[in-house]
Design brief:
The protein is of the alpha+beta class and 433 residues long. The chain is built from 17 helices and 11 strands. It has helices spanning 2-19, 63-70, 81-91, 115-127, 133-151, 154-166, 180-185, 188-198, 214-225, 275-297, 325-343, 346-363, 367-379, 383-387, 389-394, 398-408, 425-429; strands spanning 24-28, 31-37, 42-50, 94-99, 103-111, 204-210, 249-254, 260-266, 305-309, 315-322, 413-418. Helix 1 (2-19) crosses helix 12 (346-363).
Length: 433
């Protein structure tokens, strides 16, 4: 316990020192830019595209992930795929693109001496991708193979089941990475047209963290992105919302597996609500409790866990793989019920805060991680929320955490992948109230 607190204190002190590098924002030719100077000899840049799955239909699942990956892998106006890759390899420049539920991005990281080369490739990928047809086809084949492999992986399948069952009829039921069928069906014209629809400064956000000045960055942005379109926003801005599950439901998919895979999703406060911080802490404590009760005391599973996921559509969940689903589920629900009914302690809250401080510091060691965190926070409300995160976590009180946990854990939407005969419906129907 003392060691944990010492680590947390060191982490907090280090973060406080790092935070003295003042983050700022500016608008350059219609493009919003967030900049955080860093003493490290690296520079990371991320161009965000707002919307994620809100930008396309269910039939187009995966088009944004494919398109943004292709910007750095399928040629640009000034470089073929091989030329682009050769320069990146020569100077140790990391580039890539992908998409998630709420946003997509193209990112770049390089050491400061090669910023000129790194920035040139980054700007070319953002502004001038050409989506060479042969290279795009090869990328689609690679992504299709990865998606087929995921379908055979029980953990991936369970996650997809849980999201589809819980958020049916909404964009959170989509797979941002796509399906094997959707990803291979896109034509070059589809990808090029989709990227053109993303290229709008009103829907874009640039975040840079690195060893340079704001004046230097402004000049770089003016030169690189002045020609990007800046039309009126074409899509309504997504707003954060909360999520509640009023009653238990169960979806079972029979599969002959050596162990059964189970996930239960529950509600959560909206990510912009201060209550979400207390909810995160509560689920960290719940995760520790499930490990103790399910694995350590009863040996019912190797790795039970609990989590709270923040996004425009937040949710929380519990997870377990087990050969004894009735016993494991019963223990998990009983533990949630115990915590709902005044089960949290001040000591557990204190330790959870310490763990959060330490993990926060460790996850944000690199400039790339800091840039991603600032951008995601801005899309979800404000980058300032990211910089105030530890302060707000530290301000959470025991009554607040207890109340929030009890408010959002009424029902559980269960997804079960495994031997159907071993699934006990009475255990899944048991409420945590």
């Amino acid at each position: 316990m003392k060691v944990k607190n010492i680590i947390s204190t060191v982490a907090m002190a280090t973060i406080t020192i790092a935070a003295q590098a003042q983050t700022s924002e500016m608008t350059v030719n219609g493009l919003k830019v967030i900049f955080k100077p860093s003493p490290k000899q690296t520079v990371s840049a991320v161009m965000f595209f707002k919307g994620g799955t809100a930008n396309y239909s269910e039939k187009q699942q995966g088009i944004e992930s494919l398109t943004l990956a292709a910007t750095t892998e399928c040629g640009t106006k000034n470089h073929s795929k091989d030329s682009f890759k050769d320069i990146a390899d020569k100077y140790g420049i990391a580039l890539g693109g992908s998409s998630s539920y709420d946003y997509g991005y193209i990112n770049m990281s390089c050491v400061k001496p090669y910023l000129k080369e790194g920035w040139e490739l980054f700007a070319d990928a953002v502004s001038n991708p050409v989506f060479e047809e042969k290279e795009l086809g090869l990328l689609q084949q690679k992504l299709e193979a990865n998606l087929k492999q995921e379908e055979g992986d029980p953990d991936s399948k369970l996650r997809d089941m849980a999201m589809s069952n819980t958020f049916k009829g909404t964009r959170y039921a989509y797979k941002p990475s796509g399906t094997p069928e959707s990803i291979i069906a896109f034509k070059r014209a589809d990808v090029a047209a989709y990227y053109k629809s993303l290229q709008n400064k009103q829907n874009m956000l640039l975040v840079v963290v690195g060893n340079l000045t704001a004046a230097e960055l402004k000049t770089m942005v003016e030169k690189a992105f002045a020609a990007l379109p800046a039309a009126a926003a074409q899509r309504p801005a997504a707003t954060a919302q909360d999520f509640r599950v009023a009653a238990n439901t169960t979806t079972i998919e029979n599969r002959e597996l050596a162990t059964n895979y189970i996930m239960g999703l529950m509600g959560a406060p909206k990510v912009t609500d201060p209550k979400f911080n207390s909810y995160r802490l509560a689920f960290d404590i719940l995760s520790d409790k499930l490990f103790e009760e399910v694995r350590t005391k009863r040996n019912l599973s190797y790795a039970p866990s609990a989590f709270a996921s923040g996004g425009m559509q937040p949710y929380s969940g519990i997870y377990v793989t087990t050969t004894k689903p009735k016993e494991a589920v019963t223990v998990m629900v009983d533990e949630i019920k115990r915590l709902r009914n005044g089960g949290f302690t001040a000591v557990e809250l204190r330790d959870a805060k310490s763990q959060f401080a330490t993990s926060y510091f460790m996850k944000n060691e690199s400039n790339g991680a800091i840039a991603m965190a600032l951008g995601v926070a801005e899309i979800r409300g404000s980058w300032k929320n990211e910089e105030a995160f530890l302060e707000r976590i530290n301000a959470v009180t025991l009554p607040e955490m207890q109340s929030t946990f009890s408010e959002y854990t009424n029902g559980i939407q269960w997804s079960y992948l495994g031997v159907e005969a071993q699934a006990d419906k009475d255990a899944f129907a048991k409420m945590a109230k």
